[in-house]
Amino acid sequence: MLDPLWCLTHVNGMKQKFSFQLHATSGKARRGTISTPRGDIRTPAFMPVGTAATVKAMLPGSVRETGADILLGNTYHLMLRPTAERIDHLGGLHKFMNWERPILTDSGGFQVMSLASLRKMSEDGVMFKSHIDGSKHHLTPERSIEIQKLLGSDIVMCFDECPALPAGLDEIARSMRMSMRWAERSRVAFGDRPGHALFGIQQGGLDQGLRAESALALKNIGFEGYAVGGLAVGEGQKAMFDVLDFAPDQLPLDKPRYLMGVGKPDDIVGAVARGIDMMDCVLPSRSGRTGQVFTRRGVVNIKNARHQDDPRPLDEFCSCPACSNYSRAYLHHVFRSHEIISSMLLTWHNLHYFQELMRLMRDAIDIDSFADFQARFYAERALGDVEPL
Amino acid sequence: MLDPLWCLTHVNGMKQKFSFQLHATSGKARRGTISTPRGDIRTPAFMPVGTAATVKAMLPGSVRETGADILLGNTYHLMLRPTAERIDHLGGLHKFMNWERPILTDSGGFQVMSLASLRKMSEDGVMFKSHIDGSKHHLTPERSIEIQKLLGSDIVMCFDECPALPAGLDEIARSMRMSMRWAERSRVAFGDRPGHALFGIQQGGLDQGLRAESALALKNIGFEGYAVGGLAVGEGQKAMFDVLDFAPDQLPLDKPRYLMGVGKPDDIVGAVARGIDMMDCVLPSRSGRTGQVFTRRGVVNIKNARHQDDPRPLDEFCSCPACSNYSRAYLHHVFRSHEIISSMLLTWHNLHYFQELMRLMRDAIDIDSFADFQARFYAERALGDVEPL
Questions:
Q1: Cβ-contact A339, B60 below 8 angstroms
Q2: Catalytic residue (one of B106, B310, B315, B385)
Q3: From residue A366, how far is each of A29, A32, A273, B142 by CA, in Å?
Q4: Which carries the bigger pLDDT value, residue B13 or residue B94?
Q5: Do B340 and A340 touch (CB under 8 A)?
Q6: Is the pLDDT of residue A253 over 50?
Q7: For B27, left (φ over 0), alpha (ψ -120 to 50), or beta?
Q8: Handedness of CA B36, B40, B45, B47 (dihedral sign)
Q9: Any idea what the Cα angle at residue B68 is, between residues B62 and B70, rounded to 5°?
Q10: A90 to chain B: which residues are within 8 Å by CB?
Q11: Contact list, B81 vs chain A (CB under 8 Å)
Q12: Closest CA in chain A for residue B310
């Protein structure tokens, strides 16, 4: 039998390219499609995080059912376990984790900073010790790109340094400029890979001038897409939105713009309103495991005793399996009983909610009614959760 | 829309009864169907255990996909959390856990003995403290039946005492006779419930005479089915098979025979060969969570380093999602990484394997070739796992 993916990549020559089409705008919000040999990505897109070659507590088919077009994989985790070379020998990350659609991988830099110990940074790259077994590793722009190639990533991210905020302007500038030199090394290391993309990452903290300098440096190198990096690192929503009021405009109009590590539903809506096309966050899956549930009417904490006799679904308008088949009382019971099905159902619900949010935004942009969507979004949240019975 | 279950129970009057038909035998092995208003149970049947209103790490639809016709629920766990009264108010256990097909509940007695603390046994019943919150509870035959009714169980088990082996013959006899008095009290408490069944439980340890006395007492009371109790409590396979060489023959031919808490694949084959129709065990789900996998060629420990580069499935002939979509290398990786998908996939595989085993036995009995099936079963196991690459 012909492999469908083979057909897609080899028979349909049109699909071999990586490309981005912008279909519509509504205010600054953008509606588009990223085309890749492994399938289209409808933007604005939310990418669930599959850290260690799995979106935690979900089968890949279920992730797809929620509406996800693309997953994010973490270079840092995968290089340590099971290792990029092993995944390569086994046929690449898509085959390994049974996800045939596009995968974006981060560069590993961010998690070296947040998870590894004994980090030593230099112009060349960063030395660190694995948080799993203490083994020593050296990550450079060249090695990060090599790992992402071994994984078979469709969208590869430049290796950069993401300084923790707050930091002095000098430090932000120094770090950004090194990241721009690393972006150039990443571009060279990536080479020519039709159907695959390399994204540059804008840095510069909260400073408009440094952000502009960074954007210019990236545009001069030239990338298939551009990320707004260095946000969602503790600066708060207002500061983030202030940056997003100018940062996306500094990037090319005709390429996808990716806001890394964002976020909460209202972060996402605010980012899309400011011209962001792609986002990723562990929030829906991590919250699913801790009993925090996202609904149109805000956050529900399923462990709260108010749910223990409640026959109603989490959200009467939600069509996910948790809402279609189970009461709040059941979800409360299995969460309290530490049953795995609790993580499975609540993660599914949260991912479904996030993808529905993206779909509603895409639909609103298509008919140039994003402002109306935003008004409804905030009005529904203002209602708060349904009253206890 | 008409509820399919309503149609099943109300339109088709034929289906309202609980009944058992024996279709074929092969040696002592029996092929039959238990009919209930909630659907048929093909026997020999293996019942996955849904302890706390969930088969751990599985969605009910997935359990059904493995071929399960019926689940087992644990009275002890459910009475403590979320409580039988709560489940009743929420519409019963089937609705609560989203499993519309038959459910058998145990009486709670066995787990009071294995899990609760400060037990105090009397002719009336047993006082104990919850292992969850230390709360005090009193379980009697009447209360056990009441709880199982509140849960909405299709097959209710008599409340009995299951003495730990080894025990002296006097103690076994005393305990068995009290269980027979409790069986009578259970029968009275159960009353007349069309479409539902009450099963008696044979006791008597390893002693043929006591087993005969117990069987006679149960037959005199009269039940819709009969369990062989008091086995799989540490006596070993040989001792269990020795009892199964005579115990099922002491029970009525025309009623289902249920061996409680069994077991490993070869226990199951040996039990079916000796005339058992139903079994349950936590083994496939519990082993799934600890990385122990059952295949035609025996047990595979996925945590073993030999699997880390192995691109082959657990079992090339298995059609479960774990074997269809993933390599041993992936399953090894997610097990080692403590990822929830490991429990999900390995549990699914194990339940699939157990249900396939039942299907193969049913097919073999249908064509009176159970001895051939047994020969193939042991020959395949003797091969051992595939050689490392």
A1: no
A2: B106
A3: 10, 9, 13, 64
A4: B94
A5: yes
A6: yes
A7: left
A8: negative
A9: 115
A10: 309, 311, 327, 329-330
A11: 333, 336-337
A12: A90
Among the listed residues B62, B341, B335, the one whose alpha carbon sits nearest the alpha carbon of residue A59: B341
Question: What is the distance between the alpha carbons of residues A124 and B108, in angstroms, rounded to a whole number?
Answer: 65
| CB spacing of A340 vs B341 below 8 angstroms | no
Give the E-state strand segments of B124-252 in sequence order.
126-129, 136-139, 155-157, 197-202, 225-228
B254-307 pLDDT per residue, tens: 999 999 999 999 999 999 999 999 999 999 999 999 999 999 999 999 999 999
Any CB–CB contact under 8 A between B333 and chain A? yes
For residue B16, pLDDT beyond 90: no
Instruction: Report residue B382 as tokens.
Output: 């003797």
How close is the nearest chain B Cα to the Cα of A69, in Å? 19
- Grade residue B116 by pLDDT with cuts at 50, 70 and 90: confident
A6 pLDDT higher than 50? no
* The B126-129 sheet, strands edge to edge: B117-121, B126-129, B136-139
CB-CB neighbours of A302 under 10 Å: 26
Q: Which residues pair with A104 in a beta bridge?
A: A72, A155
Write out the two tokens for B127.
Answer: 């006082």
Check A89 against B326: CB less than 8 A apart.
no
Q: Cβ separation of B59 and A344 shorter than 8 Å?
A: yes
What is the average pLDDT score of chain B?
A: 95
* Chain A residues touching residue B343 (CB < 8 angstroms): 340
Active site residues of A: 106, 280
Among all residues of chain B, which has the CA nearest to that of A312? B90
Instruction: Write b or e for each residue in B151-187: b if 16 or more Cβ atoms lie within 10 A of its Cβ, otherwise e.
Output: bbbbbbbbbbbbbeeebeeeebbebbbbbbebbbbbb
Picking from B86, B93, B98, B338 by the largest number of A CB atoms within 10 A of its own CB, the best residue to mutate is B98
Encoding tokens for residue B7?
């149609």
Would you call A311 and B91 a contact, using CB atoms and an 8 Å cutoff? yes
Give the C-alpha separation, B24 to B32, whole Å.
Answer: 7
One-letter amino acid of A135? S
Residue in A with minimal Cα distance to B54 = A341
3-state secondary structure at position A370: helix
What percent of chain A stands above pLDDT 70? 96
For residue A338, give the DSSP letter: T
What digits encode the pLDDT tens for the residues B71-100? 999 999 999 999 999 999 999 999 999 999
Are A90 and B329 inside 8 Å of each other by CB?
A: yes
Q: Which residue has the tokens 């105090």?
A: B120
Select the residue of B98, B336, B344 nearest A59 (Cβ to Cβ). B344
> φ and ψ at A240, to 5 degrees?
-65, -45
**3-class state of residue B317 by DSSP:** coil
pLDDT greater than 60 at residue B175 = yes
Distance from the Cα of B160 to chain A's closest Cα (Å) equals 27
> Does B169 have pLDDT greater than 70?
yes
- pLDDT of residue B28 exceeding 80, the answer is yes
> Which tokens in the block code for residue B183?
């069986």
